[in-house]
Amino acid sequence: MNLLQLINIEVVFEQNTNNETVVFADFNLEIKKGQFISLVGSNGSGKTTLLNLIAGNIIPTKGSVVFAQRDITGLKEHQHSHFMGRVFQDPALGTSPSMTILENLALAEAKGHSFGLQRGINKKRLDYYKTRLEQLQLGLENKLQVQVGSLSSGQRQALALLICTLTPIKLLILDEHTAALDPKTSETIMELTDKIIKKQGVTALMVTHNLRYALEYGDRLLMLDKGKTVIDANNAEKDKLRVQDLVQMFSEFMEERPAISNLKVIHLAT
Amino acid sequence: MDIVLEISKGILEQGLIYGIMALGVYISYQVLDFPDLSVDGTFPLGAAITAILTLRQVNPWLASLLSFFAGGLAGLVTGLLHVKLKIKDLLSGILTMTALWSVNLAIAKTSLLSTYGARTIFNSGPILLLPAGLTPWRTLILAFHLALFMKYVLDWYLTTRSGLLLRAVGDNPQLVISLAQNPGYIKILGLIISNGFAALSGSILCQQQRFFDVNMGAGIIVIGLASVIIGMTVFKNLPLGKYTSMVLLGSILYKAALAIALNLGFDPNYLKLIMAILFTVALVSNRVLEKKEGGPKGRESIAINKY
């Protein structure tokens, strides 16, 4: 069953000006329920625009976004948040730095309920929060009263992931969420992400520049170039792909388009 | 000695009354991260409404409450200008402040209105229950309790779900979006509360000094910001608990510094100049102290929860 459908999408930035840029022209994509998709592509290929489209940050100039059989084109970004969560590249975007871990989790758990004058923190939930934090294996369960701003980027990103998935969501969007972390932390967060996705059975769409992650994790791989899908590999096909194959494809696109030379084909180490 | 006592009493009274306004500025500037100049208009708005209502024999407590709501309404306007009409935060405040000048004149019908003889919260109602010996301290006692009450209300509010969301929107609007809430509405709510506090403060000051002056709002934002920044700088490392307490103390300290400057023989015409200099000193020392501590800037450097 399709969870998400992008139908005949057209996205044009700065339409009718000299800077008019067509990112997508008649783009189509279907995401099935339960899929974990890795999305790769060079800078300017449309990955970020695609995520923004799904998250409601950008409204397509043409076409429609259908989520769980419901047309959600034109809904505001915060309305999209009712059924999806997004973890950003910048760990600061997923948490509130001046608030404690406990307050952040209490807010996260209130998602979908009313934000009125009821007590912000329900003491009865402390044990539950601790259990969830223990699963991150970063020792955060003993730091409930610590301000999030004083945590490391890795800890903050792990917390952002937990905040995102604390209430049931149908789609998890991972927006290069390990790119700002050191290799070891990046590895930890990636494993954690995989664990959470498998445990909650949530559909996930992950943009990454780490080609090894793209191949190792998930059950479908998409490569975008100039607003078009150039690879759409499902399980069996994906298993045959090697990092070198993807690098090869990237360089072919690069030759066609020498102007864009800052391809981020990095993170190839082990 | 009597003079020192009298001056100290005046400083405390003024510091506490203006402190309520400073609590409002704390919400907009510190919690919401919104430099809101509307308070220059909402502070005298509270005073104008109170002057007119108390002169017409309206219960002074009711007048204070209505002032709070009127201030909130003005805050709503600033919020709508910013969120719905996409006007920059600073400009939205300036627009409301400018418009309120005329509104205040229209309410009071004159630029200077004495309320001498009218019933106020300081000369009627519950305050009369105090023993006669405490009569000279009435104003201070009531101002103290009002400021403390407003502080506790704000402290309580900031621990509710709505309050947590308010803190989140100033910290990271994206998180509020992720929580499926509209950050614009939360900002508007914050501005309503903030300007309610400012108008209530103006209302109480009007009752204490027994007149409304259309100019009484000029530079209020500077007093408010200075109180917030002085309070949070000077008392940051003392075990005083919450930021709201520090803001109230900052307000008293600021009034004290002004009083000392004036008593040292400075010409009162230089009042605003002295205010600006004091504020500059507070801002610079804030940064110097932060550098010494080696921490990152502003709110991030604060390691324990003081909300």
Structure notes:
The complex is a heterodimer of chains A (270) and B (307). Chain A has helices at 47-55, 77-80, 101-110, 126-134, 153-165, 183-200, 211-216, 235-240, 243-256; strands spanning 2-13, 21-32, 36-41, 62-67, 70-71, 84-87, 171-175, 203-207, 220-225, 228-234. Chain A has 270 residues and is an alpha/beta fold. Chain A has a domain at 1-83 and 171-178 and 203-270: P-loop containing nucleotide triphosphate hydrolases (Rossmann fold). In chain A, helix 3 (101-110) packs parallel to helix 5 (153-165) and helix 5 (153-165) packs parallel to helix 6. Chain B has 11 helices and 2 strands; from the N terminus they run H-H-H-H-E-H-H-H-H-E-H-H-H. Chain B has a single domain, classed as ABC transporter involved in vitamin B12 uptake, BtuC (Orthogonal Bundle). The longest helix of chain B is centred in the first third of the chain and has 30 residues, at 2-31. Chain B is mainly alpha-helical and 307 residues long. At the A-B interface, helix 2 and helix 3 of A face helix 6 and helix 7 of B.
Number of strands of chain A: 10
Beta-strand share of residues of chain A: 15-25%
Describe the strand arrangement of the main beta sheet of chain A, using strand numbers: 6-7-8-3-9-10
What count of structural domains of chain B?
1
Hey, which two chains have the biggest interface? A-B, 40 and 29 residues
User: Structural class from helices and strands of chain A?
Assistant: alpha/beta
Unreliable stretches of chain A, pLDDT < 50, 5 or more residues? 258-270
Structural class of chain B: mainly alpha
Please list the strands of the largest sheet of chain B in the order they lie side by side. 1-2
Report, as a whole number of angstroms, the end-to-end distance of chain B.
39 Å
Could you give a short account of the major beta sheet of chain A? 6 strands, mixed
